[in-house]
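User: Teach me something about this protein's shape.
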Amino acid sequence: MKKSKLKRMIFLKKGRLRSRVYESLNKPKTATEISKELKVHRSAVSRVLLDLERENLAECVNAEDASFRHYIKKPV
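Assistant: First, the predicted structure itself:
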């Protein structure tokens, strides 16, 4: 297994919310949609989405929009 893939898997396992948010991204969703689905605060989901994006595990599909940004997961 590649070192980078292993590093990403460990990153996801470090936080329970990280892995839950990542798994919920089976189609483009907003932070609000994910927070309602997982029953957690939107700000927590937003922080996780930024972490996932920084680690190249998620992508914002409409980054030019100031609000209602939709995210989708990238394969590990």
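Now, about its shape. The radius of gyration is 12 Å. The domain at 3-73 is CATH 1.10.10.10 (Arc Repressor Mutant, subunit A). If you'd like, I can walk through any region in more detail.
User: That's plenty for now, thanks!
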